[in-house]
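Ticket #4471: structure export looks truncated?
Reporter: QA, pipeline team
Priority: medium

Steps to reproduce: submit the single chain below to the structure queue and open the exported record.
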Amino acid sequence: MRRAALALALLCLLLPTVGANGAPTPSAPGRAVAFVPSGFVAAAGDIACPSDRYRGPVQCHADATAYLIRRANGPFDPGGVKPKAILPLGDMQYPSGNLAQFTYRNPGCQAHPVFLLGDARACSFDDSWGRTVRATGSPVRPISGNHEYESSDMVASCDRLISLNSHTACGMERYFGDSVVAPWGAGTISTGGRAYGDGRGNYYYMFDTSPTPMLFVALNTGACSVSADNEPLCNGSNQQAPPIKFLRRTLSDSTVNPPDACVAVYYHQPRWSRYDYATLGYMRGVWNELFDVSIPESQRADLVLNGHAHNYQRFAPVGPTGAASATGIRQIIQGTGGDDIDTDPPACPLGERCIAPMRWDLAHFGAGKLEWDASAAMLRYSFYSISDNGTTGLVDRAAWNCRT
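Actual output as written to the record:
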C-alpha cells in the first residue's frame, strides 16, 4: 500500500505559487511545515539558441538561466552548497543538436549580468550551461529531446542512442560522451549517485540518503516525435520499446526502487500540456507505463519532469487517463531554459483528453529546483526565474509526501 499522508496540510505546501494570471499567490498563514532538504538538483529544458540568433525579450536567455544555477549564494547555491546534479531536460541546443552548434563561440555572450551588454548574440549550450557544469562541479545528467535527433552529424562511433531511421543524436552523444549513453557506475554518492544505463540513453541514478533514498529515472524519448516511424517508441503500440521497457524494469525492481524511496522520472516530451502543445497523445505509452500493473503502487513515481513546451506548467496528480486521482502522479513542465517562451494555448485535438495545469507561468525564463527531505520522505519543487540584470525570483513552489 502507498504510504499514508502525514497530514492533509502537507499537500497544501504551496509557498508562494502563481495564480491563473501568473502573479504570486501567498500561502495561508500557519500552514508552513518544516522541510529539511537532504539534497537538490537543478532542471530545465529547451535551452540554447542557434549561433545566428540574438537575445530578445522572449528568446535566447541560456546565458541567464545558466548563471542562475551557478550564482554564488543564489537559490541553487545556498551558502556554497551545489546541486547534486544538473538535469537538462532535452532540446539543449537548437536547431539541430550538431556538435558544432553545441560548442560555437560568440564573443558577445555574457558570463555575468547584465546580459544585454555586448552584441547580445546568443550563447551555445557549452558557453552557457556547459560553463555552469564546469563551475559547479555538479554532474550533468541530460536526456535527449527531439532537436537532438534532428542532428545531421553522422559519425560511425555514434550509434548507441535510439536511431530507428536516419536521424541520430550524435551531436549530443559526442558532446556528453558515455555519461549519457551508458553511465555504468558513473558518479559516486558525493558527486551524483550511482548511475546505471542500458546503452541507449535510458538510465537511473540513486542517492543513498538515509532513511529514504532518492531515485531518478532518465528516459531517452527524443526520437518519438521526429517522424511517424518513431512514434511506436512511445505511443503504446510497442510496449517493448527501449524507454518503456527500461521504465517498467526499473520501477518494478524493489532492489533499485524500494517502497520507501522517492522517485522522479524525467524525459523530454510531456503527456499533458495546455500551452504550446495541447496534449501529446503519442506519449500515452510512456505515461501509461507509470501505472503498469507490474509496478506496485508503493513503487510508483512521485514526479515526472518534462520540457518540450516552452513555458512552466505544474499539474495536479492524475491517473493514466488524465483524471484527477489521489494516487496519481504529478507532472511538471520546465521548458524555460532559455530558447524562447511560448504562450499559445492550442485547441484540444479531436478525440484527445486535454487537462489544464494547476499553476503555470508564461512570462519567465529560469530553472526548477527539486529538493528531497530524506527524513520526512517528502519532495519540494520550486521554479526560480532570472531577469536580464541578474535578479532572481520565486515563481512557484509546492511540496508533497512521496507516494501519497
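Status: closed, not a bug. The export was complete when the record was re-opened. Leaving a note from the reviewer for reference: The domain at 8-18+36-401 is CATH 3.60.21.10 (Purple Acid Phosphatase; chain A, domain 2).
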